Prior knowledge:
This protein is of the alpha/beta class. It has two domains: 2-144, Rossmann fold; 147-229, Helicase, Ruva Protein, domain 3 (Orthogonal Bundle). The protein is built from nine helices and ten strands. It has helices at residues 50-60, 70-83, 99-112, 122-130, 133-139, 150-165, 176-186, 195-211, 219-229; strands spanning 2-3, 9-13, 16-20, 39-42, 88-91, 115-118, 143-144, 147-148, 187-188, 192-194.
Amino acid sequence: xxxxxxxxxxxxxxxxxxxxxxxxxxxxxxxxxxxxxxxxxxxxxxxxxxxxxxxxxxxxxxxxxxxxxxxxxxxxxxxxxxxxxxxxxxxxxxxxxxxxxxxxxxxxxxxxxxxxxxxxxxxxxxxxxxxxxxxxxxxxxxxxxxxxxxxxxxxxxxxxxxxxxxxxxxxxxxxxxxxxxxxxxxxxxxxxxxxxxxxxxxxxxxxxxxxxxxxxxxxxxxxxxxxxxx
Length: 230
């Protein structure tokens, strides 16, 4: 269980924004029926059942949920994850999963022997995981990411622009005019800047820019988004 904010990458398809899991070693390979995606990301809906979790996983791999039973959906998810050579599955806001759904997450870990990382807050996720002893035994390791110092901000923003947002055209977010817009929305220099807020602000600015038909983060859009978080 990791208290860490990791979000999907916004890509373009037919000049329209599309959200796909990020592949650490290069872009996802979507050329074949089953895409090769070593690192995958899922954001469950509130009160997420097993069927809904399986549906979201399959959709992110360009598959439809089968019409059969939950067991049929489970079998297809395991097959797709195996064929896609997925090594890491991030499940963000994992406290949204229903109690019974955690058992299916546990089964993915057990059957495929891949890293399944639950992301959430200590206050919400810890109690949810501890309700099932078998789940807790598998996901009790914990890592927390808090703030970064002002000296690190430029480097982190650069990494987010290049590897997380990954838009077709550079947004030059590490320039001082852009950093000046970002800083008030993500913390204060004296106490540090929050990585989670950096991610949310930049990701939202990227999505809105793409929706406007732009190929990078527009400065005016960034001002708008940063103002909402300030």
